Amino acid sequence: MIRSMTAFVRTVASPREKSWVVEIRSLNHRYFEFSMKSPAVLFPLENRIRELVQQKMKRGKITLSITQNSESEDGAQLKLNEKAVQRYLDAVSKLQKRFKLKMDLSAQEVLRLPEIFEVERATEEDAEKIWPQLEKALKRALESAIHAKEREGKKLGADVTERLTQIEKAVHQIENHTKDREGRYFKKLSERVGQILQEQALDAERVYREVAFLAERSDITEEIVRIKSHLNLFRSRLHGSSEIGRELDFLCQEMFREINTMGAKAQFFEISRQTVFVKGELEKIREQVQNIE
User: For residues 251 and 257, is the Cβ–Cβ distance under 8 A?
Assistant: First the structure.
């Protein structure tokens, strides 16, 4: 099944205490590139999450966003540092006794004191408790992303298949134009030489030698055989089950090479016209292939 590299899905998992929202965005990229935005409590799980995603998506620029709906959004809690508060109060009491001062601290003034609150971060143990439920949400999101990729891949496959058919027809026409090329070269060369020499007699043997030289230099039989082979392989791989994007891209390059050689060797307008058409279709196919995983 062909998979596109472009997809966006959003999945929500709702355990008793909090709900996780998982969003996966996949864009075209030559290799696997992963980035994750998540609460701090999930940082210890980043490598595990990356491995889970890479098992399902081999190529593409993958952006994973995980958010949660809860009172402690980032997994951190604010905690009163009672020891620090007690140290401040002890110091105030000491000042009062030593210098006979009258000092009364209000709650508002105490809140302004530095370092009386500390942030208690989530631990790796907290992440492990979260993982089972989060893993289920991730797997559901990945399955949805794969289905979206396959739907888009089916459209890409249909478009590429139609263009392959058009290329095959053009190659067949090129092959037909190469038949009896020696006779066509002889006629073409004889007419040109006759125009130059006008009334003088033609040296038929020399003309035949020139024709043989031109025919050999412009022979595209091997290129036709190779591009046909590439087209057949492309079709077979297009309906394969593994990751095929890179292989199809390579086959496009090989077909470009063959059609460019054919265009350079072509001595007739009909062949040149068909090679230009094939190049255009190959370019469109290659653009599509860049989006295939």
Answer: no
Residue 277 CA from chain centroid, whole number: 27
Using the 8-state DSSP alphabet, how is residue 202 labeled? P
Q: How far apart are CA 64 and CA 205, in angstroms?
A: 75
**By C-alpha distance, which of 128, 138, 148 is closest to 20?**
138
* Main-chain dihedrals φ then ψ at residue 106, nearest 5 degrees: -90, 165
CATH architecture of the domain with residue range 7-72+124-149: 2-Layer Sandwich (3.30)
Domain parsing of the chain, residue ranges:
7-72+124-149, 77-120, 157-289
Which of 133, 126, 124 lies closest to 11 in space, CA to CA? 133
Three-state secondary structure call for residue 137:
helix
Compute the distance between CA of residue 227 and CA of residue 146 in angstroms, rounded to an integer: 33
278: how many CB neighbours lie within 10 A of its CB? 26
Look up tokens 């130059």; give the residue. Answer: 196
pLDDT digits over 160-213, tens only? 999 999 999 999 999 888 776 555 655 665 566 555 555 455 566 665 666 556
Q: Which amino acid is residue 3, in one-letter code?
A: R
